[in-house]
Amino acid sequence: MIYVTGDTHGEHDFEKLVAFAERRPQLTKEDYVIIAGDFGGVWRRESLAEDLLPYESLPFSVLFVDGNHENFDLLGAYPVTMWHGGKVHIIKPDIIHLMRGQVFELDGRTIFTFGGATSIDRHMRREGVSWWKEEAPTFAELDEGIANLRRYGNKVDCVITHSCGERALMYPPLRTRDVRMEVYPENRMLSYFEDVLEFGHWYFGHYHLDGRLNDRMTVLYNEIVLLGE
Fold first, then answer.
1. In the structure, what pLDDT confidence band is assigned to residue 95 with cuts at 50, 70 and 90?
2. Are the beta carbons of 203 and 218 closer than 8 angstroms?
3. Which of 31, 64, 101, 213 sits 20 to 30 Å CA-CA off 162?
């Protein structure tokens, strides 16, 4: 089984995974929960092994796209490996980073991944300590995503990103009566994929909200949903 959820921020929003596992004792390491960015478990070099232990203790395997709150120096130190058709960083055998612009074949389904986003609180953070410029997707990663999707005829079953396309910002629950969501470069990049891709469902995190924008797009934070639903 493959499930998707929103940001976990290390141990800050980790308990939803524990509660999910307790409700489903049948889960094994052959099952996956995909975190839609801001995994946050690879953050402190000095306590990395300890920080990963709670995730290793889960009965299922954890996959994640990167968000804006990740230690990209630590992530980038892992070797790039091919896994189920796409590039990954294998943090642990049961904790795997799904890199940007990749298409993975899992359980008979194709999944396109594209992490990254802009931190609106970066002015309060220190570069190389709590903020990294690599949080923002690059045009090289965009080009890699375009090339990989062409191999699949621009058709995938699911899309998992951290942020979302520009038009998605206009749908409830992201749009409210008195708040206008700011548009960043990654929103425009993801709008391109929304234009050219034929997909079944698109999941993203980042906005700390749960809800369906329409019948094909879902924003996630605390909810954990079955892939494709």
1. very high
2. yes
3. 31
Distance of CA 156 to the CA centre of its chain: 16
Residues 40/208, Cβ–Cβ less than 8 Å? no
51 touches 11 (CB < 8 A): yes
Cα 14 from Cα 212, distance rounded (Å): 22
Class of residue 195 by CB neighbours under 10 A (exposed 0-12, middle 13-18, buried 19+)? exposed
Q: Helix axis angle, 185-196 relative to 139-150, nearest 10°? A: 10
Q: Token pair of 15, please? A: 């308990």
**Do 224 and 181 contact (CB within 8 A), yes or no?**
no
Q: What pTM value is reported for the model?
A: 0.95
CATH architecture of the domain with residue range 2-226: 4-Layer Sandwich (3.60)
Decide: 157 and 109 in contact? Cβ < 8 Å: yes
What pLDDT score does 171 carry?
A: 87
Look at residue 229 in the predicted model and tell me its pLDDT.
Answer: 79
Non-local CB neighbours of 173 within 8 Å, separated by 6+ positions: 209, 210, 211, 213, 219
pLDDT band for position 180 (cuts 50, 70, 90): low
Predicted confidence at residue 79, as pLDDT, reads 98
